[in-house]
Amino acid sequence: MKEFIKDIAIALVIVIAITLIIKPTIVKESSMEPTLYENNYLFVNKLAYLTKDHPDYGDIIIFKSDIDKDDGSGKKILIKRVIAVENDVVTVSEGNVYRNGIKLDESYTLEGFTSGDIKDYAVPENEVFVMGDNRGVSLDSRSGEVGTISEDSIIGKAFFRLYPFSEIGLLK
């Protein structure tokens, strides 16, 4: 009986540790298509940025926005891709995105075209510039409603898709 109780206690410690590190998340909108689709079930590493200074280019992050939920129950949690980090300069012109004067290869986007016109926007310190992969519908850093994201508001990095099972695996 002691062995059984010991096994249960170890299992509980492992479950608690995992829930402190990993946050399960369900995609609710289409702003990250074709990378992520509505109802994809993801795992988010909540400790991803505790061991390094800043998010990397291309990371898919979830963060708490300043946008109210439709039902008034708090702020929306959004999922977007990191395009630029602090001190980078972002330009959006003629459907292309440039970081520090270099045109980005964004083959992961749905349309291959980015609307908007941003001229030499310098990303503030401890903030990131994010965009959805479905640029036509994404509410992201191009909008004053979202703007750049404080690194303090980042919940974590999406790293694994569990569902649908046909697409199970690490995110790129």
Automatic annotation (TrEMBL):
InterPro entries noted in UniProt: LexA/Signal_pep-like_sf (IPR036286), Pept_S26A_signal_pept_1 (IPR000223), Pept_S26A_signal_pept_1_CS (IPR019758), Peptidase_S26 (IPR019533)
Any Gene Ontology CC annotation: plasma membrane
Cited NCBIfam families: sigpep_I_bact (TIGR02227)
Enzyme category, top tier: hydrolase
Pfam families found in the cross-reference section: Peptidase_S26
Limits of the Peptidase S26 domain: 2-163
Coiled coil: none
Record keyword S-adenosyl-L-methionine present: no
Keyword terms of this UniProt record: Hydrolase, Membrane, Protease, Transmembrane, Transmembrane helix
Record-stated family: Belongs to the peptidase S26 family.
Lineage per the UniProt record: Bacteria, Bacillati, Bacillota, Clostridia, Peptostreptococcales
Subcellular location: Cell membrane; Membrane
Chief location of this protein within or outside the cell: membrane
Species of provenance: Lentihominibacter hominis
GO molecular function, one term: signal peptidase activity
Membrane topology of the entry: Single-pass type II membrane protein
Protein name: Signal peptidase I
PANTHER family hit by this protein: CHLOROPLAST PROCESSING PEPTIDASE, SIGNAL PEPTIDASE I
Biological process per Gene Ontology, one example term: signal peptide processing
List of catalytic residues: S31, K80
Catalytic reaction equation(s): Cleavage of hydrophobic, N-terminal signal or leader sequences from secreted and periplasmic proteins
Enzyme Commission designation: 3.4.21.89
